[in-house]
Amino acid sequence: MSEISKEIIIYLFAAHIIGDFVFQSKADVQNKSKPAVLAKHSLIITLLSFVIVGVWNLWYLSLFIGTSHIIIDYIKAKYGQDKIFPFLLDQFAHLIFILIAAFYVSTIDNIQFFWSELAGGIYLSAIVVISGLVLLIRTGGIFIGIIVTPFLQQINSEEVRPARGLSSGGEWIGSLERILIFIMLLMEIPAAVGFLIAAKSILRFGEIKESQNRMEAEYIIIGTFLSFIWGLIISYGVLQLLQNI
């Protein structure tokens, strides 16, 4: 794969995840089957792709990505919003179209990336870091939330009174711990991740110990380990990418 193809993939993937997980609200996701909502989201993806890639004469490339986004999201809206398999299949389908676009661009000579030429390698590195943070915080929260939802529904079906906590407290804790993992690996102190895991385990111990329901304790543990696993995988992947671009 050529360097131009790799760069296009990074830019288009960044546009995709920023559009999907930053510029798309929960209301948009719930109403994705409505033409107006779907069109708005597709327009955002198209504009982000055009701006982030920065190859102005390839405007039709962004249009291709935006159009494919409409088709894929419409299918997903019909067959399942809050299930892990449709979520993964949806993301995989978007990636396929990004790869197709990158393959097409590799056949074109004299590609000029406006932002890369203006800022040099800093721009590409910045896009990688921003994409990594979106994956860590927003995508990770949604992905983990989808996985643990069946466990939460099981708890509710047993009429267990959930422990009192802050509104969205779990989401904030998960986001912060994944950011800390990223910072620790970026600073090349991976051993500190172990201390982070130990510290959270101690803090959570009291909550689990005082809980009278084993289901709640297991739900907390599953969510915690999923958060750490996601944080480590994405952080390591971003660092490897930064070292090889």
Describe the structure.
- By secondary structure, the chain is an all-alpha fold.
- The chain has 2 domains: 3-117, no CATH class; 134-243, no CATH class.
- Helices cover 80% and strands 0% of the residues.
- The chain has helices at residues 3-21, 26-30, 35-53, 59-79, 84-105, 114-119, 121-157, 169-186, 191-210, 214-243.
- Helix 7 (121-157) packs antiparallel against helix 10 and helix 8 (169-186) runs parallel beside helix 10.
- It is flat, with a radius of gyration of 20 Å.
Radius of gyration: 20 Å
Helix percent reads over 70%
Measured by DSSP, the beta-strand proportion falls in: under 5%
Residue stretches low in confidence (pLDDT < 50, at least 5 long) are none
Counted by DSSP, the helix tally is: 10
Give the termini distance in whole angstroms: 13 Å
| Number of structural domains | 2
Q: In sequence order, what are the helices and strands, one letter per element?
A: HHHHHHHHHH
Shape: flat
The largest sheet, given as strand count, sense and whether it forms a barrel, is: none
User: What number is the mean pLDDT?
Assistant: 83
* Count of DSSP strands: 0
Q: Structural class per helix/strand content?
A: mainly alpha
Give the secondary structure arrangement, pairings included.
Blueprint: H1 3-21, H2 26-30, H3 35-53, H4 59-79, H5 84-105, H6 114-119, H7 121-157, H8 169-186, H9 191-210, H10 214-243
